[in-house]
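Could you help me review a protein record that somebody else here produced? What it holds is a sequence and that sequence's fold in token form. I have pasted the whole thing underneath without changing anything:
=====
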Amino acid sequence: MMIDKTKQLAGEAASEAEQPGEATVEREGFSLWKRLRSPRTLISFGLAIAIAVFAFRGLNIDISQTWSYMRSANPWLLLLGLVVFYMTFPLRALRWRLLLDNAGVPVREGRKSWASLPALMEYMYLSWFANCIVPAKLGDAYRGYLLKHNGKVSFSSTFGTIFAERLLDMIGLFGMLVISGYFTFGAHMPEGTQIVFGFGALLVVAILTGLAGMRWLSPFIRRFIPHRFHEVYGNFEQSALRSFSPAILPRLILMTAGVWLLEGFRLFFVIEALGSEGLMLTIPAIIFVALASSLLTALPITPAGLGVVEGTITVVLTFFGIDKNLGSAVTLLDRMINFWSIVVFGFILYLFSKRK
């Protein structure tokens, strides 16, 4: 009997070790520093560097010419691009608060709220910082944990609203990508862009399938989840499904469209900063390139698509007849705004934040 009991405990321990990150975070918390030092993270950075080197060598990029283009950029227009990009964070935070309220996640206790707009912006920025330094979009889990850590909120319920937010982002991004691609290329898309569309369609289908599965196959899904995790999954499922309602859907659509338009204008100001005649792109083309860049950051193999984005977007720009060295300058300047600025400012915020 003692042996059977020991086997049972060992089996439970093994089962817990195999559970997804959500359940682990619910029980044990989330250490960003520990994740950063993990072999998986170090390997992903090594892979990102290898991909970037391979891409730039394959394209035969002239580093000195690219650097010359970058040095000639107008710093004030680059700063304007940075401001436009950072305007997305309060808009994203407002949208997240709307999802939290609609899902019934308890973010207030009397007059005290642990989900004020400044707090949500801080959680969101720290999560983006995490996504830039660890792979597999673990920053999303970190954001959910930050709200749990600073308030009396279930992590799984919070993560359900983040899942709903990601669904909005992917549908909005992919929809605008298709529209801008049509106005840019017409019905005949260049061969290389098919990879971008295929990846976007795959992500949208995967997320919609997950949402539909929760809605229609909940009892079947629960059969494969250990009983002790039923409450965790139930909270996640309930908040994900309740995040949307016809009453708030128009506002969610407008906010999502606003986020992705701002992402497009970020790249517009980067291109204007270079002020080269070789960069005569239409607004739909600029939006297409910016959204393709944002889509590729969802790749889980490297932090925020590092390496993959730089190489792919440089290639996409050549479809518009842009010199590859000039295209690489555009890509690197844009990544200074939407990647490296988050690494630098996010690290400073992480050091001094009382909510981390």
Q: What stands out?
A: The chain has one domain: 75-105+113-352. Residues 1-21 have pLDDT under 50 and may be disordered. DSSP finds 17 helices and two strands in the chain. The first strand starts at residue 108 and ends at 109.
